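In the previous chapter we treated chains in isolation. Here, by contrast, the input contains two separate entities that must be folded as one system, with a combined length of 338 residues.
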Amino acid sequence: MIEALISHYNYWLIIILMMLGLYVVVSRGNLVKKIVGLNIFQTSVFLLYISLSKVSGGTAPILTGKPESFSNPLPHVLILTAIVVGISTTALGLALVVRIRESYGTIEEDDILIAERSQDVSERNGGSA
Amino acid sequence: MTTSPDMVIIIIDLVLLTLLCLTAFAIMLVRHLFAVVALTGAFSLLSAGLLVTLDAVDVAFTEAAVGAGISTVLMLGTLALTKRREATKPKLSPIGLMIIFLTGATLIYATPDMPKFGAADSPGLMHIVPDYIEGSKNDIAVPNIVTAILASYRGYDTLGEVAVIFTAGMGVIILLGRRREDEYGYSEDNAAFPLHPEGSDNTTGKDKS
């Protein structure tokens, strides 16, 4: 039991973190907050991958000339790429938020839905609103 | 070399992960978006610290620069152009809770199949990584193995990453490059769907020139 706890506690805590991020995305109506939640989710996925690469007793994967054991460098490379892709999506999402604010005057999901519906109704009642 | 991770590492790990969870909770509850963005910066910094204890120094470096630096700046810029406060009170969302409990339970159910934390014989280390480590010593002669893989063995991945950044940059320019109608960034007259057509409490679009 203790053995299983020590060998997997890291994954469990990271999964809890991941679910916190997912909950922010699902439950909050504010678009900026949704993007923040997405960032939390993203960072915890990064942490999950990096925990998989850890070798106890190993060092950072930099050659020093001495024989030693390294942590797995491959997930590090993949996550470096993922961080940069993540900031790209964040930037695009935030730009969309700014545009939505310009067009609708709000960044709350509920208000945007109300505006959308009133637009639909006015279209049905005879063309241009 | 033991197969179970060091006690010190475990304690640092636990402290940092607990702090990360607390920060995420705070982000969930706080309604002032400025505070949320500041907490996001702290979150990135804490995760960079955790990445250092997990031996991923390059990733920690990038996370500190990109996560705590650039993304905080981008979010503050967005807040300057939008609102600072979340309108709705945070309320419990039953569907959201159901989703996260189901997903979390499934993920935790899957963890016993994963290699033990810190295991030296995990499958990920067996296949191609020894070749990369040897190659970076003998063929590429770059001391940092991560650099060797990133720029040489997986150079095409990095090229694809550049393509992604370029596409995102173009997207942002297309979305925001258009000149704004007024200096406030939002004008009630030009809005496609005005929220409060008359008697609005929106102060930004009031001054008609």
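The first helix of chain A runs from residue 2 to 27. The helical segments of chain A are 2-27, 31-53, 73-104, 109-124. Compare these points with the single-chain example from earlier in the chapter.
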